[in-house]
UniProtKB/TrEMBL annotation:
This protein's name: Transport permease protein
Biological source species: Myceligenerans salitolerans
Family the entry assigns: Belongs to the ABC-2 integral membrane protein family.
Membrane association type: Multi-pass membrane protein
Keywords assigned: Antibiotic resistance, Cell membrane, Membrane, Transmembrane, Transmembrane helix, Transport
PROSITE patterns, per database record: ABC_TM2
Amino acid sequence: MTAVAATLRQSWIITLRDLKHWQREPWTPVFSVLFSVMLVLMFGYLLGGAITIPGGGDYLPYLLPGIFALSMMFGIEATMTAVANDTKKGVTDRFRALPISGAAVPLGRAGADLLNSAVELTVLLVGGVLIGWRATGGVGGTLLAVALLLWFRFAMLVIGVFLGLTIRGEGGVTAVQVLVWPAGFLSNAFVAPESMPAWLGLVAEWSPLSATAAACRQLFGNPTGASGGFVADNAVLLAVLWPAVLVAVFTPLTARAYRRLAR
């Protein structure tokens, strides 16, 4: 068996271990889905009537792709917390004592979270259809949008594993959890950047979350809220490149953090 095949097999075993934890304690993934549904109800029905989409279109079809992307980003907290808890409780130390690849542990964690995210995204998509949202961009566009959402999620998982390995204290974990909120809202998930002050809109427009949300709106055939420009015209390309950059940056940092943990 090659080293790569052995690492993948070991990662799958660790993935199954993490999935069994959710099977016994399903509240974290269930709460994550319910939280995303709450955001849809709150913004779509309580506040949506006061929000105008530049270029026209109903707010709910604009909102749902943003919620899909936001739910993929907010999962970084659960990954970071799980990895930090494993490190704190000595579980990671026990893994290090086993004759397994150093990459198997973070890959296994990411694999479990990615599978959980796929289920969560499926529930949100079905829920969106039930409340009237429709994807009119065709089967190919819909599948590509789902793939981009999971690709963005994978990038968030890599960052979450890195943060979990480097941030040990409760205060640090809480600080990251709090900072995720402004990072998520500083995007086009809820309102179009064109409706913001110029400098703030520029920051929101170039957010990785905004790139994924904008690409999904285009591929789903939903209102984009953008009148044009480089970001709007290349949303799909940016939705591919932004996660790729994040994965390329944080993968070696995660490997380094795991090696330093082993010293």
